[in-house]
Write a structure and sequence with these properties.
The protein is of the alpha/beta class. It is about 40% helix and about 20% strand. The termini are far apart.
């Protein structure tokens, strides 16, 4: 089997991926040569197209020989067999990896420019290349996609040696390869036209695919795309910076109450926010403390201070046209959980649901018994001290509540898959309870106020 060119390969590969039609798919091309192949797949699946930048780490004295690969977000793989065979020392490997990381960032800027990456959280990532020789780059790409929250990873290539396909079965949930020749020399031997793809061509393909997808996406898909804006909230005599993201058509909002060592820039909180966006929930990520205030450790544990500012922020939201009247939920990691519960116990503060992730609800003290909002406590099984404190706090709650222990998770939920589990639990909790609160509010509005006397 041979392919006329990369477009032909993409069209034939798309035929083998028909079973993905209807799924929430993002197609990711490995630059450069994989992008024109991926463009045909994205067109056939009516899916958005993006690049996933991964660079091989070459042996210093034989750069064409890959001893690993590095991708966006520093995800990477090392081929220990090649390292041993080539006699590469640890410091030589580290230096080569550092050089490759810098090159990856340069490539991202060159190919994607100011265009934000397509979000993968909760979606099926289809990774496409024009062919595979060893599989190191493809394996690293799969790791990048999973690190960015992809719920499922499909690796799709026109041609690759059978042993490489077999070795990649543990990296992707599904591997689709059109041709696995018995004799494999190089990818180019299976193409009539294997002219190198340039950076300018990659950028042009991405621009065209974005325009086509925007024009052909279903109205519901366009309506649900989030539009975010930076905001500044006056609370407690200071200005607090935040980011409000309100997808069109959503009817619920989640406020992130950042705890110790956390902020609106936290990768973990931003990841959870993306999962909530996919569940049709708006979010407000903001900082409860200014930069100077964070320098004083005591402020981070001043739950009353944090809660009082949170109450003012909730009041500010009530005056914003984009979110006025929406049921509000609170998501709090670490000390932010205590501030969320404290604020939820305040008279006159309308909070419809609370989720604590690796939180310290015990620091809310006597306020716990006054909380009325349904509360979910999420704790990692390895976080034994915080787990004990959550169980003690749970015993003091009088509201509808649940404690969920995520197996294999430590305090920061850094282990593979654990943060996604926590985010999915939070999305389900908020969806159930905020939707119920919104429906109850609508019924009250329809009936009108109770008659006096």
């Amino acid at each position: 089997m041979s392919f006329r060119n990369r477009v032909d390969a993409g069209q034939r590969l798309a035929g083998a991926l028909r079973h993905l039609r209807g799924e929430d798919v993002v197609v990711l091309g490995l630059p450069r040569g994989g992008v024109p192949v991926a463009a045909e797949v994205a067109r056939a699946l009516q899916a958005p197209l993006d690049v996933i930048v991964v660079r091989k780490v070459g042996v210093p004295w034989q750069p064409e020989l890959a001893m690993g690969a590095i991708g966006e977000g520093n995800a990477g793989v090392v081929n220990d067999g090649v390292v041993r065979m080539a006699g590469v020392k640890p410091d030589e490997l580290s230096a080569a990896q550092t050089h490759t990381r810098v090159e990856v960032q340069r490539r991202v800027r060159a190919l994607r420019g100011h265009r934000p990456p397509v979000q993968l959280a909760g979606r099926t990532a289809v990774i496409v290349d024009d062919g595979i020789a060893t599989g190191s780059t493809a394996r690293a790409a799969c790791r990048v996609a999973r690190a960015q929250g992809a719920a499922r990873v499909v690796l799709a290539i026109p041609v690759a040696p059978a042993d490489a396909v077999a070795n990649l079965s543990d990296a992707a949930d599904e591997v689709v390869c059109l041709f696995e020749p018995a004799w494999f020399g190089a990818v180019g031997q299976f193409y009539d036209d294997f002219t190198p793809t340039t950076d300018d061509q990659v950028v042009a393909v991405l621009d065209h695919a974005a325009a086509v997808h925007e024009a052909t996406a279903a109205p519901a898909q366009r309506r649900n795309r989030p539009v975010s804006s930076d905001v500044a909230v006056q609370a407690g005599g200071v200005e607090l910076a935040g980011r409000l993201t309100v997808p069109d058509g959503v009817t619920e909002l989640v406020v992130f109450v950042h705890g110790s060592g956390s902020s609106r820039h936290s990768p973990r909180n931003r990841y959870v926010a993306e999962v909530l966006h996919r569940a049709r929930l708006g979010t407000l990520l903001f900082d409860l403390l200014t930069g100077d205030e964070e320098m004083h450790r005591g402020n981070v544990f001043d739950i009353e201070l944090l809660a009082s500012r949170l109450v003012q922020v909730i009041g500010w939201l009530g005056a914003q046209p984009a979110v006025r009247g929406l049921p509000v939920g609170l998501f709090g990691p670490s000390t932010g959980a205590a501030a969320a519960l404290w604020a939820a116990a305040e008279p006159g503060v309308d909070v419809a649901a609370v989720v604590s992730r690796g939180g310290r609800p015990d620091l809310a003290g006597a306020r716990l018994a006054r909380v009325r909002a349904p509360t979910l406590l999420i704790v990692g099984s390895l976080d034994q001290l915080v787990l004990r404190l959550n169980r003690e706090a749970e015993a003091r709650l009088r509201c509808p509540h649940r404690l969920v222990v995520v197996p294999g998770a430590s305090h920061l939920f850094e282990e593979p898959g654990t943060l996604h589990s926590a985010a999915a639990l939070a999305a389900d909790w908020f969806t159930d309870h905020l939707t119920a609160a919104g429906a109850a509010g609508a019924r009250r509005s329809a009936v009108g106020p109770a008659p006096s006397g």
